[in-house]
Design goal:
The chain is an all-beta fold and about 160 residues long. It has no helices and 15 strands. About 0% of the residues lie in helices and about 35% in strands.
């Protein structure tokens, strides 16, 4: 007898990503709201009381940069994208983010769900380029998007 595994998305940062701890996000059934992928804090409103970046949720927190300052990725929105499970699949949808959501370098249209599969490369945002207008206090780490290898479990056919 095997115990069914609930649907889960594992996000593992790639070398070019803004650094984040590996994530193991369990998804509830279709009758529950989607899981938000986004910043732990809101760029305008600051820290949101209900948000705390954990390895088991979709919020991405700050990290300590090479210059020892605490930084967040500029290209990641507070409510950047959402993921959910339905019909034995895990879907992702961009939520009208400023810098886009990409699967295997293909940009998703806002509001257009796309199924995920194991091995996909998820990118939240784009690599921003430093220019003469970039404030000096902005670190190179902050200019990086979130880039992660996707591993799915608890979904039939997730290992395609």
């Amino acid at each position: 007898m095997s115990i069914p595994t609930p649907p889960m998305i594992n996000l593992k940062a790639t070398a070019d990503s803004f650094h984040f701890p590996e994530k193991f996000i369990f998804l509830q059934g279709a009758e529950y709201p989607p899981t938000i992928l986004g910043l732990q804090s809101h760029p305008t409103h600051g820290q949101l009381a209900s948000r705390r970046a954990l390895p088991t949720n979709g919020y991405f927190g700050q990290t300590v940069s090479s210059s020892r300052s605490t930084v967040s990725p500029i290209a990641l929105g507070a409510n950047h994208a959402q993921v959910w499970t339905a019909s034995d699949q895990i879907f992702i949808e961009d939520t009208d983010s400023s810098f886009g959501t990409f699967i295997n370098d293909e940009r998703l249209g806002s509001g257009t769900p796309r199924p995920l599969k194991t091995g996909d490369i998820l990118r939240l945002g784009i690599q921003l380029t430093r220019s003469s207008d970039t404030p000096e206090n902005v670190t190179n780490e902050q200019l990086r998007p979130i880039i992660a290898k996707v591993i799915l479990t608890g979904i039939p056919g997730a290992y395609v």
